[in-house]
Every structure is written in structure tokens, then in C-alpha cells.
Amino acid sequence: MKPSTQLKVNASTNNHQTTTKIMVSKIIEKGLNSQIVSESESSQYYLAMASWTETQGFNGVAQFLYTHSDEERIHMLKLVKYVNERGGHAVIPALKAPPIKFTSLKVVFENLLNHEIKVSQQINELVEICLREKDYTTHNFLQWYVAEQIEEEALARLIMDKIKLIGDDKGGLYLFDRDITGLSASTSEGGAEKKGGK
Ligand code: OFO
Fold first, then answer.
1. CB of 72 shorter than 6 A to ligand 1
2. Whole-structure pTM value
């Protein structure tokens, strides 16, 4: 929808005031609703990883993943509120079941990194649609997600590097499990969280 057709004028007969509301276009609404699915799936996926790692005795990793799962839910909620505030309808989706088991800690974080890369691509596509549709408000709103993805991908890569270094060394894995929650906190301090996004 072009900007000229994004204007919806509601005339109030009660107080004779005229209010102008900028509506989100159908194509942007659809894109944002797809992103709601992705963020919800991310939350479920990381929750499944958290539960599995907890059963394997990696309590630090589990805590890290429970927190990450909560954050993804907040990302989803932020989108829900934005869509509705802009006169669209945020649809709460059914989600497919995430995996139950993972073969190793390395596989967990490989999956996490690949998932974050996929989400970054989705955000970038959404940003591209906003530019094509000349929806600069949603484009601006999405910049928080762009910054967040940079942070999350960087953190996932950092963790993968550490896991590769540790290999099968049990002592190394013990220390990694002990230290990972601090790693998450220190990284998010410089990230999109600090930019007032949540
Ligand atoms: Fe929603 O931040 Fe990653 O996926």
C-alpha cells in the first residue's frame, strides 16, 4: 500500500473531532504476523533446548536458554503490540512441536546459531518489504530487531567457538556450564536491550 492510501480518517460524531490514524498495510501486517510466528517458534525451540540441557545436568546452560526463551517471547509480544497499535490484527499462531532431544551440547548451539541466522534473514526481508512499501515507521520499528539479531548471532558464534575449543574435555564443559550465564549478561549489556528496546 502506498503512503497516500495508508491514511485512514475516522470522524467522531460525538465530539465533532477528526482523528487521523496511520494504518499498517496488509502486506506489512502479513510480514509482521509471520515474524510473530518466528519469534514464538524461537521461544519454544530454546525452551526445548533448556529442558533437555537441564536433564543432562548442564544447569548453567539451561538457565541461559530459559532466559533466551523468555527474551524471544518478549520479542514476539513487542510485535503483537505494534501490529495492533497500528490498526492491524496480530494473530497468535499454533506452533509446531520443537525437538525433544539433542545429541550433544555442540548440536544444541549449532542449531541455535543456524536458527538465529535464519531469523536475521527474515528480519532483513521484512526490512526490505518496508522500504518497497515506503512504510518508514515500521522500518524504524524493525531497526531494534536488526540490532538484536547482530548481538544474538555474535553471541551464538562466540559460544560455538568456545565449544569447539573445549571439545570433549569434561572439565572444560563443567567450566563452560558454570560461566555461560555471565557470558549472556555481559553481552546483552552492549546489545539492543540497552538501547531501551524492552
Ligand atoms: Fe528474537 O531475537 Fe533472535 O531470534
1. yes
2. 0.84
Hey, what long-range contacts does 165-174 have (CB within 8 A, 24 or more apart)? 173/58, 173/105
What residues have CB less than 8 Å from 74, skipping those under 6 apart?
Answer: 198
Rounded distance between C-alpha atoms, residue 174 and residue 166, angstroms: 10
Q: How far apart are CA 161 and CA 159, in angstroms?
A: 5
Instruction: Pick from 121, 152, 188 the residue to mutate for probing ligand 1's pocket: most ligand atoms within 8 Å of its CB.
Output: 152
Going from N- to C-terminal start, the domains of the chain cover 25-195
Residues 6+ positions from 152 with CB-CB distance below 8 Å? 116, 191
| Domain 25-195 in this protein, CATH class | mainly alpha
Among the listed residues 73, 58, 74, 72, the one whose alpha carbon sits nearest the alpha carbon of residue 180: 58
153-169 tens-digit pLDDT: 999 999 999 999 999 99
